[in-house]
Amino acid sequence: MTSTLAVEPRYRLVPRSTPAPFVIAGLAFVVLFWEPLATLARDWWTFPEAAHGLLLAPLALYLAWRAGFTATSTPQPAAGIGLLIAAVCLRYLSGLAAELFTMRLSMLGAIVALVVWSRGFGQVRQWWLPLTLILLSVPIPVVVLGSAALPLQLEASRMGAAMLVWRHVPVEITGNILNLPGRSLFVTEACSGLRSLTALLALGVLIGGLWLRSGWARVALLVVAVPVAMAVNGVRVFLTGYLMYWVSPRLGEGFMHYTQGWALFVAAFLALGATAWGLSLLEQRGAST
Q: Which stretches of the chain drop beneath a pLDDT of 50?
């Protein structure tokens, strides 16, 4: 009677249980992407346009932890290494050009590559919401920011002027300047609504990912976020001009001006939440038919 025994190989280059590959990959990631990581954290802390990253990044890590690992995911080393090579090349080229946005995108690409290498594309699909939130936490390039802010400034000025005329406030509009009797209201880049639009889009992605289940409903929520942000900013310009004309010019600046902005953003968030609730009802109705 013969018996067969499973023969383990005598030598392994890397034992299965060792954390060495992950430690080496983590150290290499920190060394290679320390500059974009440090400048990204600095921008989150310093610039108001990027401050939403202080909320989105920890939230993305929490959502990734809550989603956990997929039971059926399998590592795809070849695809992961290919993506990692592409991310490293992009990091090198963006470093030569000193272009921070592309440099930060290369860092995100490297994160996706490491996930594919260790867990496969199934894990990327499982973590689509946290990865999208991290992407949205990267500040928009200054060139794109400037080119997008001016049309929004002009649109907010036109909407605000139209509402002021509706409320019998004499106003003349010159570009992004609203001329009221004895005073002028200048709609600056900070008042263009780009900050609220960016924040509402991030909130739309988050609410859609947590509450909605279908792709069409999530896209519809993001589409609604754009006119909501523009309308809220137009109302803000109107309220500023209205209070300056009828009450006091001091209400157009300082604490009261910022308070109006926060209050209207809360109103925009509630409108977005109501839209998501309506879309979820449509999803339930469609599922029941």
A: 1-16
- Residue 115 domain flag: yes
DSSP structural state of residue 129: H
Residue at which a domain ends, from 138, 159, 183? 138
Same domain, 132 and 156: no
pLDDT of residue 144: 74
Cα 283 vs. chain centroid, distance in angstroms?
Answer: 25
State whether 56 and 193 are in the same domain. Answer: no
Residues forming a β-bridge with 172: 179
Question: Distance between CA 261 and CA 276 in Å, rounded?
Answer: 22
Burial 224-256 (b: 16+ CB within 10 A, else e): bbeebbbbbbbbbbbbbbbbbbeeeeebbeeeb
**Which of 138, 173, 206 corresponds to the end of one domain?**
138
Q: Are 152 and 233 in contact (CB under 8 A)?
A: yes
Three-class SS state of 102:
helix
- Give residue 277's pLDDT: 93
- Which range marks the domain in which residue 190 is found? 143-288
Both 277 and 170 in one domain: the answer is yes
pLDDT tens digits, residue range 41-57? Answer: 998 998 877 888 888 99
Q: Which of 196, 197, 210, 204 is nearest to 62 (CA)?
A: 210
Q: Which residue, among 126, 124, 95, has the nearest Cα to 109 in the 3D structure? A: 124
Tokens of 76: 């795809």
